[in-house]
Amino acid sequence: MSKLSQTAKQLSEFLNLIEQDRENIERVIHEVKEKDIDAEFIVHPKSETVEDSSKNTGYNPEKIVKTLVFVAEEPIAVICPGHTSVSEQKLEEITGHEPRMATPEEVEEHTGYQIGGVSPFDLDIKTYMEKTILDKQEVKPAAGSKVTGVSIKPEDLKKASEAEAKDLSRK
Asked: Which of 3, 23, 58, 98 has the fewest beta carbons closer than 10 A?
């Protein structure tokens, strides 16, 4: 394991997040193992935005992927590159229903994850993936916490998340 330097305050916050999110992190670990996916877990300081994650991991925002939850007729997840946003119009065309962003409570209810650590693994809701993610060699979604991520090949992410690749980003 590589060195991770923290102040006492940062370390205390880090340990609290790990304790709070342990079950979700273990969900992701289980999915990766069960589906025999080659992935590397990344432990990093607390990251609540793509910009934080980029700064804390050294990953370009284009390689960071976020999992957003919407409610159309049913809840749906969208895996989207960190540097873009989801086109609600395209999502409506795909689902046939006008989507809205899920509330933090709905995100947790439908995924078990908290905003900032929503992982595309082990979801029981329909999942879409922005198709341009498949053009990357490697991406980094959250791994169930604001302090963990996973480096993975996009094809493996698609397989693990059972996502349907579609054109969903705003241009």
From this structure: 3
